[in-house]
């Protein structure tokens, strides 16, 4: 019995010693399991890698605010390049519906496609002026009638089916895009929230939890956008679009397409 007591005493001392050692060792912070790596991490994003929260958001803002601006008229031809159908170079893919439509059918009539601002122009009153009003990272080709149905609504689940956009739903104050576009919308909205911080003559754009934001520079709902970012990872179409905007038009990137895990790291 005495030997058993000694054995238990040694075991207890060993456990205590191990615990004390653990307390003195620095914690090892593992990278998120879904962390992405890109060719831009050592160059374009070098000052953001390893950061989180407000520090990461501030670093990304500094990186992406350097961009070339285009006119609202120039957006037409830009979208013909950024939103090109990979299976038919004469067409563009329309947001919310996934329909492939001729590039030549751009305009304001029924059956045309026009320029959809995913961050509604009225949410910050920036209109179509060069800057947030012409930023290709949130402008997409969209069916004229579907665009009108979306209007300036915030983002949320639910509602009635949208005519002409199978899988999309809407109600009096919100719009839900089809599953294949949910992540695209989330990453476009959150790009805008990082790019436009109120320091360059435009409103400070931010996400929130409201679906009645009206003309204030806010867009909701953040919790839903975060869910959509997780649910619908960046597609090949979205990644190509990011590259075209970066290489041919604005010279800046949407960081949440390259690193979707940064959404959770910031918000």
Detailed description of the structure:
By secondary structure, the protein is of the alpha+beta class. The chain has one domain (39-266). It is 38% helix and 13% strand. The chain is built from nine helices and eleven strands. The protein has helices at 2-24, 53-64, 74-82, 144-150, 179-195, 222-231, 236-249, 255-258, 262-266, and strands spanning 84-85, 88-93, 100-102, 113-117, 139-143, 154-155, 160-161, 169-170, 174-176, 206-208, 218-220. The strands form four sheets. Strands 6-9-8-7 form a four-stranded mixed beta sheet. A hairpin with a 7-residue loop joins β7 and β8. α5 packs across α6 (222-231). The longest helix is centred in the first third of the chain and has 23 residues, at 2-24. Residues 1-33 have low confidence and may be disordered.
Q: Unreliable stretches, pLDDT < 50, 5 or more residues?
A: 1-33
Question: Which class best fits the helix and strand makeup?
Answer: alpha+beta
Strand elements, count: 11
Domain count: 1
Main β-sheet, in a few words? Answer: 4 strands, mixed
Set down the secondary structure blueprint:
Blueprint: H1 2-24, H2 53-64, H3 74-82, E1 84-85, E2 88-93, E3 100-102, E4 113-117, E5 139-143, H4 144-150, E6 154-155, E7 160-161, E8 169-170, E9 174-176, H5 179-195, E10 206-208, E11 218-220, H6 222-231, H7 236-249, H8 255-258, H9 262-266
Helix pairs in contact: 5-6
Task: Note the main attributes of this structure.
267 residues; alpha+beta; four-stranded mixed sheet; three-stranded antiparallel sheet; 9 helices; globular; disordered N terminus
